[in-house]
């Protein structure tokens, strides 16, 4: 149960019992946690947002609504604050029921039907197939994968997609780079890698494979004879490497779409014809970029998309000076293809260096979908790899960057995934190789995992201390949970009961990092309760001579473990039951 959704419905039902004008718009009525915990459990703005339409003063409407809410069996007290905000305090038995819900659902707690199984496409990583994944790709991969899991938990039908940029000049450069490594494998001394080619030694295995397949057939052949063949082989080889890198990170896509496939199937031409048929393509001359003096800029007629009609700052070129389509044209075709495959809702995860591309792409989606599609773009800022407080590079295998595989091999996939989600996507992230392996509160991975492991340690002790007792989730859910009345215990239960709301709000905002903050709060609350038990023996989880209270606390401990496991599942992180 999303208890705040539930109380919003109860508040609207209470309003319907008042003598108010019919047809009141209640869409702006909210039920949410109060800003300050001391103010209660649920706050509503109903009287404030409806008073004008109701023809009453906010305070008067609040008094009438409060009288209705005081009769609710789950409400212990109602307070009116300021000009008409209403705060509700709930009875302890309500929280015992929420705890039973957690135990009955287990790690599925927080699953929602909010999305109604509506389809949504999340495209992420989509790196050029020219080499191994680097640490920047790791962040986009984790954010996209966790967001897809979060949306699935919130009830959406999610498709994870990777767009292979295999139609641009960079894949020709890749083919030439692999041809150089092919010649090297045949015994040629290639010397220093020429400027403009990819220098990483990750291309050597592909070169050796080509040498084994073709011998010296293409060693001295003109480029026209081998470029297309080597390009196809190179893209396949790099995509195999990328899939392996992503698998090491626990990332798996449902769909891989090839840009070259779109071009060769005529879908780019067809998409631009469709856009032209809508009257959104024209021949024109763009003004020079504002605030810039460009020596090489010259006004010339171009094929342009009316991006300004859909919220962009300027209209955008669709053709290059040589008459070929721009990258933007291919991207329009790709997003139209996604829309026609049944995805009116699309999310793209991009690097921050693509920030200037967002408006034009959103404009294009509005245009080709004729208003039926929506594109949300999440930009991922840079990751700074640190060690000992200093920038750090781990490997030269890739030439100039730290590979994703090196990072995973160094600290493990679960650490990489969790840390990548500890900041909002548009905030810079420092990834400190020392700190992420520390066993301290300052390491969020350890802090949350330690809470989960501590829960299981307590449960193992419970089996020994309560011989013959049924500590299954079902038995604990039906147990004496009403015995949990200490404010510290209730605070933990209230935090757990907020997980369904957190899932829905984070999914709606497309912000999986909220889960990391929430898990840290749950871990802190549980560790705090543990520490209170060290100071006050009556707050220990196992109370000698009071099996009933001990069982209730075993239920609370198991529920904490279940909610942490539920959150870690969204992140694709395995919860641990023992710390090494």
Protein model, in words:
Helix content is 48%, strand content 12%. With 580 residues, it is an alpha/beta fold. Among the domains are: 3-90, Arginyl tRNA synthetase N-terminal domain (Gyrase A, domain 2), CATH 3.30.1360.70; 441-571, Orthogonal Bundle (Isoleucyl-tRNA Synthetase, Domain 1). A five-stranded parallel beta sheet has the order 7-6-5-11-12, sandwiched between helices. Strand 13 (383-387) and strand 14 form a beta hairpin. The chain is flat and about 85 Å long. The chain starts with a helix and ends in a 9-residue tail after the last helix. The relative contact order is 0.11. The mean pLDDT is 94.
For the structure shown, list the relevant keywords.
single chain; 580 residues; alpha/beta; Isoleucyl-tRNA Synthetase, Domain 1; 4-stranded antiparallel β-sheet; 20 helices; 12% strand
| CATH level-two architecture of one domain | Orthogonal Bundle
Strand order, largest beta sheet: 7-6-5-11-12
Considering DSSP H and I runs of 4 or more, what fraction of the residues is helical?
A: 40-55%
The secondary-structure class comes to alpha/beta
Task: Determine the CATH topology of one domain.
Answer: Isoleucyl-tRNA Synthetase, Domain 1
- The level 1 CATH classification of one domain is Mainly Alpha
| First-last Cα distance | 36 Å
Q: What do the pLDDT scores average to?
A: 94
């Amino acid at each position: 149960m999303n208890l705040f959704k539930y109380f919003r419905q109860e508040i609207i039902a209470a309003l319907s019992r008042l003598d108010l004008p019919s047809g009141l718009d209640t869409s702006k009525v909210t039920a949410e946690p109060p800003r300050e915990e001391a103010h209660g459990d649920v706050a509503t703005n109903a009287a404030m947002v409806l008073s004008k339409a109701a023809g009453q003063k906010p305070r008067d409407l609040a008094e009438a609504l409060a009288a209705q809410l005081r009769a609710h069996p789950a409400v212990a007290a109602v307070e009116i604050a300021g000009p008409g905000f209403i705060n509700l305090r709930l009875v302890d038995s309500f929280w015992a029921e929420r705890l039973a819900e957690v135990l009955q659902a287990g790690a599925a707690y927080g699953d929602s039907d909010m999305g109604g199984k509506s389809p949504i496409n999340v495209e992420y990583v989509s790196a050029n197939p020219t080499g191994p994944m680097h640490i920047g790709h790791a962040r986009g991969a984790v954010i996209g994968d966790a967001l897809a899991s979060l949306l699935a938990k919130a009830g959406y039908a999610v498709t994870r997609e990777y767009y292979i940029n295999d139609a641009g000049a960079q894949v020709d450069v890749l083919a030439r780079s692999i041809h150089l490594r092919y010649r090297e494998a045949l015994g040629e001394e290639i010397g220093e890698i020429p400027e403009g080619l990819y220098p990483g030694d990750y291309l050597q295995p592909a070169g050796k494979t080509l040498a084994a397949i073709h011998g010296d057939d293409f060693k001295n052949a003109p480029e026209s004879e081998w470029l297309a063949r080597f390009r196809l082989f190179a893209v396949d080889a790099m995509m195999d490497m990328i899939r392996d890198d992503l698998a090491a990170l626990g990332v798996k896509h449902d769909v891989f779409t090839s840009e070259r496939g779109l071009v060769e199937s005529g879908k780019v031409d067809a998409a631009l014809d469709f856009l032209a048929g809508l009257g959104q393509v024209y021949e024109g001359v763009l003004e020079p970029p504002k605030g810039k003096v460009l020596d090489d800029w010259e006004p010339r007629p171009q094929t342009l998309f009316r991006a300004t009609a859909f919220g962009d700052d300027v209209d955008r070129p669709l053709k290059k000076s040589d008459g070929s389509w721009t990258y933007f044209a291919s991207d329009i075709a790709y997003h139209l293809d996604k829309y026609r495959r049944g995805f009116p809702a699309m999310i793209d995860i991009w690097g921050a260096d693509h920030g200037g591309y967002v408006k034009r792409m959103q404009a294009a989606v509005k245009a080709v979908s004729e208003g039926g599609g929506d594109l949300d773009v999440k930009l991922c800022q840079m990751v700074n790899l640190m060690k000992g407080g200093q920038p750090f590079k781990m490997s030269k295998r890739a030439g100039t960057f730290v590979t994703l595989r090196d990072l995973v091999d160094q600290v493990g996939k679960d650490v990489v995934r969790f840390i990548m989600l500890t900041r909002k996507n548009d905030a810079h992230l420092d990834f400190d190789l020392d700190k992420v392996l520390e066993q301290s509160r300052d390491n969020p991975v350890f802090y949350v995992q330690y809470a989960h492991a501590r829960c299981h340690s307590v449960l193992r002790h419970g089996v020994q201390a309560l011989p013959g007792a049924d500590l299954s989730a079902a038995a604990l859910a039906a147990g004496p949970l009403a015995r949990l009345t200490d404010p510290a215990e209730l605070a933990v239960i209230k935090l757990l009961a907020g997980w369904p709301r957190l899932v829905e709000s984070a999914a709606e905002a497309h912000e999986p990092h909220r889960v990391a903050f929430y898990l840290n709060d749950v871990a802190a609350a549980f560790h705090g309760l543990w520490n209170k038990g060290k100071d006050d023996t009556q707050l220990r989880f196992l109370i000698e001579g009071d099996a009933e209270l001990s069982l209730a606390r075993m239920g609370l401990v198991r529920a904490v473990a279940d909610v942490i496991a539920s959150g870690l599942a969204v992140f694709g992180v395995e919860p641990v039951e023992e710390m090494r």
